[in-house]
Amino acid sequence: MKSPIRIFRVADKSMEPSLLSGDYIFVNGRSQKINVGDVVVMRHPNKNIYIVKRVREISNDKFYLMGDNDGESEDSRRFGALERSKLVGKLIFKI
Predict the structure, then answer these.
(1) 29 phi/psi in degrees, rounded to 5
(2) Do residues 33 and 50 lie in contact, with contact meaning Cβ atoms separated by under 8 Å?
(3) Residue 25: what pLDDT?
């Protein structure tokens, strides 16, 4: 059975000061309940990469995501809300 916990390395400054480039984050892929304010990992809609963003709004099972560092973040302001199918998981802790 595949583990629901995945580890990712933050690769940019888009979530500073909450998450720094180089931080490792543990993500629960089985989190069913996602709330506004949660930090999530999702698949980028136009690139073959994962992104770490904060949920700012949830509507019709879509997530509007933004980075904490507005000037360094490519987020829903550019690519729109993302479907739940793009969700990898919810942040549970960082190191």
Answers:
(1) -80, -5
(2) no
(3) 98
Domain boundaries, the chain: 5-94
Q: In three state form, how does the secondary structure of 24-87 look? A: EEEEECCCCCCCCCCEEEEECCCCCCEEEEEEEEEECCEEEEECCCHHHCCCHHHHCCEEHHHE
The mean pLDDT values, 10 residues at a time, for the chain of 95 residues are 85 96 95 91 95 96 95 95 95 94
Tell which CATH classification among 3.40.50.720, 2.10.109.10, 3.40.50.12780, 3.40.50.11810 matches the domain 5-94: 2.10.109.10
Q: What is the pLDDT of residue 68?
A: 97
